[in-house]
Amino acid sequence: MLSCGALVRVHARPGKEHEVERLLRDAVRMVNEETWTETWFGLRIDCVTFGMFDAFDDPAARRANLSGAMVGRLLARSDELFVRPPTVEKVDVLAAKLPARIDRF
């Protein structure tokens, strides 16, 4: 059962919006290999703000995700792509509705 999550927000540097979008679209392949990540979304919040939302069964899975390859890739390009470092908010999942069948990208 999903009990916790992580919400990451990033603000693209001017002219880097398409690269940030591509980074998030490509990230789904990496996330699909993470056995601990139950649900993941790459998000566009507005024209320069992007994000990721992940949900997990327990805090140990969230810790594994936050120290995993995708976050490392994001941080490695942080100075190049973002106006400030990503913000990471640890959240508790209070309720969720998920489809019986989830299509993978």
Features:
globular; 105 residues; 4 helices; 4-stranded antiparallel beta sheet; Alpha-Beta Plaits; alpha+beta
Commentary on this structure:
- This protein has one domain: Alpha-Beta Plaits.
- Helix content is 34%, strand content 27%.
- It contains four helices and four strands.
- A four-stranded antiparallel β-sheet has the order 2-3-1-4.
- The chain is globular, with a radius of gyration of 14 Å.
- The model has no long low-confidence stretch (mean pLDDT 91).
Number of domains: 1
So what's the oligomer here?
Answer: single chain
> Poorly predicted ranges (pLDDT <50, ≥5 residues)?
none
> CATH first level: which class?
Alpha Beta
| Named CATH topology | Alpha-Beta Plaits
CATH architecture: 2-Layer Sandwich
- In helices, the fraction of residues equals 25-40%
Strand residues, percent: 25-35%
Order of adjacent strands in the largest pleated sheet: 2-3-1-4
Give the helices and strands as they follow along the chain. Answer: EHEEHHHE
Say how many strands there are.
4
Radius of gyration, CA atoms, in whole angstroms: 14 Å
Q: Could you tell me how far the N terminus lies from the C terminus, measured between alpha carbons in angstroms?
A: 23 Å
Shape: globular
InterPro entries: Dimeric_a/b-barrel (IPR011008)
Protein name: Antibiotic biosynthesis monooxygenase
Organism: Sphaerisporangium rufum
In short:
With 105 residues, the chain is an alpha+beta fold. The protein has helices at residues 17-32, 59-66, 69-76, 78-81, and strands at residues 4-11, 39-44, 49-56, 87-92. Strands 2-3-1-4 form a 4-stranded antiparallel β-sheet.
